[in-house]
Amino acid sequence: MNKKEALFVRNTVKITVAVAAASAVALGASACSAPSDTTASSDKGDKNAPLVVAASPTPHGAILDFVKNKLAAKEGLKLVVKPFNDYKIPNKVTDDGQVDANFFQHKPFLDTFNKENGTHIVPVQNVLIEPLGVYSKKIHKLSELKSGSTVSVPNDPSNEGRALKLLADNGVITLKPGVGSDAKLTDVKDDKGVKITELEAAQTAPRIDDVDAAVINGNFAIGAQLKPSKDALALEKAKDNPYANFLAVKKGNENDPRIKKLAKLLNSPEVKKFIEDKYKDGSVIPAFGPAKG
């Protein structure tokens, strides 16, 4: 073999090794990007894959974790819980197929969200009610609110109306005749000098020190270590409450066998006992039954 031939062989070996190495890297990258057990699968037709559910951490995520750890295996259900401290993202990722379902909201909120965002989420099964409450770090009773006092409310339409009604029911403000839980700020007939501040629902608890009082959703109150039965200056009544939180899916996925299994488990005696034992302060109340679309 002359020098020219030897050089050709060496170069050929180098190229072969480089190609092999590149192939190995590509194979590794492919393996790393393979679908994980946290990938939603309802749009892929794989009904034996894990069911991925977006949820508020408390109490929804805690309830789902109980189902996952104590009940799901007996039903042959693999459950993955993805927590979100947000009221917008869970519906978006459910609608675009990143997750299979969500559990965090009530019907008035969902109706508004679908209308404003063009999403197609539908309720499946009612599970619980979290009474809305008024909390404060500055006053001990609502009668201490006076002209110039500030009260924050959630800024999404359904929860804002609910909050305004709670304030009206407790004499803080007066609403126009005939206005109920669909109230808007423009429906306040007499604010009695109290300044109503709108905040994203998730911010009402963290920013409670910025106002004299705050109307806070149950899950965010719990997350902030507030005890509704003890700390709330006023609490929404649970009886005949239309704000049951439910399991929800993108329209068309209601009959997914995994969804049916989860819906059954979420309304089981075991979950009822879990809720009543864990939330003895009345911050979360079982509200079982099919959800109305």
UniProtKB/TrEMBL annotation:
Membrane topology recorded in Swiss-Prot or TrEMBL: Lipid-anchor
PROSITE patterns: PROKAR_LIPOPROTEIN
Signal peptide bounds: 1-31
CDD domains reported in the protein's UniProt record: PBP2_lipoprotein_Tp32 (cd13597)
Main location: membrane
Annotated lipid attachment (S-diacylglycerol cysteine): C32
Keyword Lipoprotein on entry: yes
Record's keyword terms, sorted: Lipoprotein, Membrane, Palmitate, Signal
GO cellular component, one term: membrane
Pfam families in UniProt: Lipoprotein_9
InterPro entries from the UniProt entry: Lipoprotein_NlpA (IPR004872)
Localization: Membrane
Keyword Signal listed: yes
Family stated for the protein in its record: Belongs to the nlpA lipoprotein family.
UniProt-listed PANTHER family: D-METHIONINE-BINDING LIPOPROTEIN METQ (PTHR30429), METHIONINE-BINDING LIPOPROTEIN METQ (PTHR30429:SF0)
Full protein name: Lipoprotein
